[in-house]
Design goal:
This protein is 42% helix and 16% strand. By secondary structure, it is of the alpha/beta class. The protein has one domain: TIM Barrel, CATH 3.20.20. The longest helix has 18 residues.
Length: 255
């Protein structure tokens, strides 16, 4: 049974001490492929190195909205160049809008996001989206700048918004938050959405599931999140793994 982690920051320092062991454990558990999105230009070099040295890791490059104050126009130029020079890059991400954090400049985020969508469109790459309290704005920009679909990471919007995303070629990411009893809205979404709209993710080292609350999240825990989704939907874990993995392959063009 293959499971794909469609969003995992395995390149970050949290995994420097035991990255090889974590990835070996993942393979033993059936977590055979991981998509590794970037957050800042300073991390791109190490991210690409980690992905090149380990089979089954797929890099995405982008500028995360939470760090909007640190990104520059030069970083956008660098993104376009790096994507042109790196054929292994499968997506532009992690990009998007974060209106949950009130201290972040919204206009700068909007400008940064639109510029990265244009880069993705020009390169014919899908995008990996970070969206908090900003689905309406993201959907409007996606209508303005058409890209080749992608993934809405850690989706927590409405069913109506989900339909708008899927109509534009997007899949919706679900992970460890499904394993918390209090995640009532997520549980309703997980039951109501078609499985063909969903992909699995960890967002490791962040967004740890209930069984490991307060610890570092890890792609090793993806089978637990798979089981949580399967139980909510009353479907077999094997079926959920097969469909969500194929969804990730299709939307990101994984080889």
């Amino acid at each position: 049974m293959e499971i794909i982690d469609s969003h995992c920051h395995i390149d970050v320092a949290d995994f420097d001490a035991d990255r090889d062991q974590v990835l070996a454990d993942c393979r033993a558990l059936g977590v055979s492929r991981l998509v590794v999105p970037a957050v800042m230009v300073a991390g791109w070099g190490n991210l690409l190195k980690v992905c090149r040295t380990t089979p089954g890791l797929y890099p995405a490059l982008g500028l995360h909205p939470v760090y909007v104050e640190q990104h520059t126009h030069q970083d956008l130029d660098a993104l376009a160049r790096r994507i042109a020079d790196e054929p292994d890059v499968i997506a532009v991400g992690e990009i998007g809008l974060d209106f949950f954090l009130a201290e972040l400049d919204r206009q700068r985020q909007l400008d940064l996001f639109e510029a990265q969508l244009q880069i993705a469109a020009a390169a014919d790459l899908p995008v990996i989206l970070h969206v908090r309290k900003a689905h309406a704005h993201v959907i409007e920009l996606l209508k303005k700048v058409r890209v080749r679909g992608g993934i809405v990471h850690a989706f927590n919007g409405s069913l109506e918004q989900a339909k708008k995303y899927t109509d534009m070629g997007f899949k919706l990411g679900f992970g460890g938050m499904l394993s918390y009893e209090r995640s009532h809205k997520l549980h309703r979404l997980a039951k109501a959405l078609p499985l063909e709209a969903m992909v699995l993710e960890t967002d490791a080292p962040d967004m740890t599931g209930a069984a490991h609350h307060g610890q570092r999240n890890s792609p090793q825990y993806l089978p637990e999140y798979l089981n949580a989704l399967a139980q909510l939907r009353q479907e077999s874990a094997e079926h959920v793994a097969k469909v969500t993995s194929q969804n990730a392959i299709d939307v990101l063009g994984l080889q």
